[in-house]
Amino acid sequence: MDQPRAPLSAWFKAxxxxxxxxxxxxxxxxxxxxxxxxLQAGSTEARAADRQALATLIDEIEHAALxxxxxxxxxxxxxxxxxGPRARRxxxxxxxxxxxxxWRLALERPKWRFATLEDxxxxxxxxxxxxxxxxxxxxxxxxxxxxxxxxxxxxxxQLEAAIRLGHDWxxxxxGPPLRSDPPLKxxxxxxxxxxKA
Length: 197
What we know:
This protein has 197 residues and is mostly helical. The protein has helices at residues 8-16, 32-71, 99-108, 117-121, 128-149, 155-173; strands spanning 80-83, 91-94, 113-116. Helix content is 53%, strand content 6%. Strands 2-1-3 form a three-stranded antiparallel β-sheet. It starts with 7 loop residues before the first helix and ends in a 24-residue tail after the last helix.
């Protein structure tokens, strides 16, 4: 099974003795269970600190993404939303809904549209910055859920999500505004320009 990781300082203390001395003096050997307890205690403290630092960073990223939502007059409260056929704005429905409840609601009101906060910004027709903010919110939700449940999902998927999130956040904060690429247009054969070779 997976063993808890000890912080680097705990490993150095374990290798060099309690005081971390590099002197040639031989220190009395400690029982293995004592060393294991020290490493696990250090590991637990380090993990708690890492989780807190990650939660703070995710909060900061979410705040930046929600600021983009606010700039575009979109809702900023996490949860589920609905929109009637003639409504201009999304209406908040609930913080959390079971899939059965969402299906029931969709069947009761077939002309309505339903979405989560993350889905609202990802809809077609939204500005590129809003789409980017929606992606960031969805990734933050995924990472926060992985930390909260302490499930060990695919490491490659977690790293990819973290790298994309960092890239999107940096682009949102520092880079020039993203432009929306126009949709591709397919022309009938013989109707478009043919590049010369």
